TrEMBL record:
It comes from Danio rerio (Zebrafish). Keywords: Secreted, Signal. The gene is cbln7. Transmembrane segments: none annotated. SMART domains: C1Q. This is Cerebellin 7 precursor. InterPro entries: C1q_dom (IPR001073), Cerebellin_Synaptic_Org (IPR050822), Tumour_necrosis_fac-like_dom (IPR008983). Residues 76-215 form the C1q domain. Its main location: secreted.
Length: 231
């Protein structure tokens, strides 16, 4: 649930509780010091207390509704995070004087929209265990080194030597424990190549395997609501 929504509601909730307690204390003091309380004034105070109680219950109901919507949204993400993309018919990519992020622009599937085909970066939308596969084709006499990166740190590499005399490919797979917002992408090492054409040789794919159960971020205390007004 967005903090921009929750915090103002909580502030209003507990402010109303405090105001209700202050009013009840003032009412008790007035009752003790006055032997004859006017009936109409008593009825008006009671009506005000009942109004505050109903108002607090409305806020509590709204908080529960917003929390339920958040849980539904997160549960949908857990079922729809998967992507697969290829370089497309570009021929050779490289060599470069520095490591570059490989952008797999031709997208086959991108459920959940976690993969960005403009930057080549996958951003985990929820905490969980993710499975990734990378693959690349290289030409004869051209080395290929692909690094799968997580938040700027190398996880694994696909390496093919420049000594090969024919086209060949390499691939690797890995499962990663990601936090929400973690970045995963592929880097092409400097002075190496990667090749692709219409036959789809070089790809980057991933999907969410599973994630931990949703934990409740906030539980309203049972005594947060005032006791029912006694007549």
């Amino acid at each position: 649930m967005s903090c921009c929504v929750v915090y103002p509601l909580l502030f209003l909730l507990f402010s109303c509780v405090w105001m209700s307690e202050v009013q009840q204390e003032e009412h008790r003091n007035k009752t003790e010091s006055t032997e004859h309380l006017d009936v109409e004034e008593s009825d008006a105070a009671l009506t005000s207390a009942e109004f505050q109680e109903n108002f607090l219950r409305e806020i509590y109901t709204e908080l529960k509704t917003l929390k339920a919507r958040q849980e539904v949204t997160e549960e949908q993400l857990r079922r729809t995070v998967a992507f697969s993309a290829t370089l497309g018919p570009i021929g050779n990519l490289g060599p470069f004087n520095t490591d570059i992020t490989v952008v797999f622009r031709k997208v086959f599937v991108n459920e959940g929209g976690a993969y960005n085909p403009t930057t080549g970066i996958f951003t985990a939308p929820v905490k969980g265990i993710y499975f990734f596969t990378i693959g690349g084709l290289y030409q004869p006499s051209k080395a290929m080194v692909l690094d799968l990166m997580k938040n700027g740190q190398k996880v694994l590499s696909v390496y093919k030597s420049s000594k090969a005399k024919h086209y060949d490919s390499g691939s690797r797979s890995v499962s990663l424990n990601l936090e929400k917002g973690d970045h995963v992408y592929i880097q092409l090492r400097s002075k190496t190549w990667i090749y692709d054409d219409v036959n789809v040789h070089s790809t980057f794919s991933g999907h969410l395997l599973f994630s931990p159960p949703i934990t409740k971020a906030y539980v309203l205390p049972a005594d947060a609501l005032p006791a029912t007004t006694q007549h």
